[in-house]
């Protein structure tokens, strides 16, 4: 299989046995303990258990031009596929920026079946009332993709609650006001340039800072041609 086929295979054959009992926090970071179980590809009844933590930063309200590298602690190749998968599977959660860090801790190989190990871990974490723990049955040689699939699904589950809480606090209203103020600032800078050409560099810097250069590109370069 090529890289894309391996990625798709891991996505298809990943099973979330137990989800955390709480969503991602809206106004703070979230720590999820993961137990990722996978069968060794070349040995019978040999199961690898990987343990670690996924740290989800407080969700941020983002605008369409804003690019967010949402995965930290993954291989570069996996991160690239992850970003594409997040776009494909997470269409409904655009507008909020989630960022996740993978803190891998340890792994063990045990002689058993994946089902037996999964059931045993589930019983243990239930007895310890680990509300923010997840059990994932994944693909051994592409386990980071399996972990990433869980993150996307957790984000999609958390999104409605996060949006509701942000709306109740008026965060989206504030953002609309901020965007309006940015437009007013840009319009004023264009007026300033018509009076003093030396301020054009300040205008260009602000347009790039706000991610609006492409939108104002024609109007900006027209200033050099004295067309306005």
Q: What would your notes on this structure say?
A:
- With 228 residues, the chain is an alpha/beta fold.
- The chain has seven helices and eight strands; from the N terminus they run H-E-E-E-E-E-H-E-E-H-E-H-H-H-H.
- The protein folds into two domains: 3-168, no CATH class; 171-222, no CATH class.
- The strands form two sheets. It has a six-stranded mixed beta sheet, sandwiched between helices. It has a two-stranded antiparallel ribbon with strand order 4-6.
- A hairpin with a 6-residue loop joins strand 2 and strand 3 (46-56).
- The chain is elongated and about 80 Å long.
- The model is unreliable at 63-68 (pLDDT under 50).
Q: What is this structure's SSE topology?
A:
Layout: H1 3-12, E1 15-18, E2 30-39, E3 46-56, E4 60-61, E5 71-72, H2 76-89, E6 96-97, E7 100-111, H3 114-127, E8 133-137, H4 143-168, H5 171-195, H6 200-209, H7 213-222
Parallel strand pairs: 2-8, 5-7
Antiparallel strand pairs: 1-8, 2-3, 3-7, 4-6
Helix pairs in contact: 2-4, 5-6, 6-7
**N-to-C SSE string, H for helix and E for strand:** HEEEEEHEEHEHHHH
Helix count, DSSP H or I runs of 4 or more residues: 7
Backbone structural class: alpha/beta
Q: What kind of sheet is the major sheet?
A: 6 strands, mixed
Domains (count): 2
How is the largest sheet built, in terms of strand order?
1-8-2-3-7-5
Number of separate strands: 8
Mean pLDDT: 84
Tell me the helix content.
40-55%
User: Gyration radius, to the nearest Å?
Assistant: 23 Å
Q: What oligomeric arrangement do these chains adopt?
A: single chain
Strand fraction band?
A: 15-25%
Distance between the termini: 57 Å
* Shape designation: elongated
Model regions low in confidence, pLDDT < 50 over at least 5 residues:
63-68
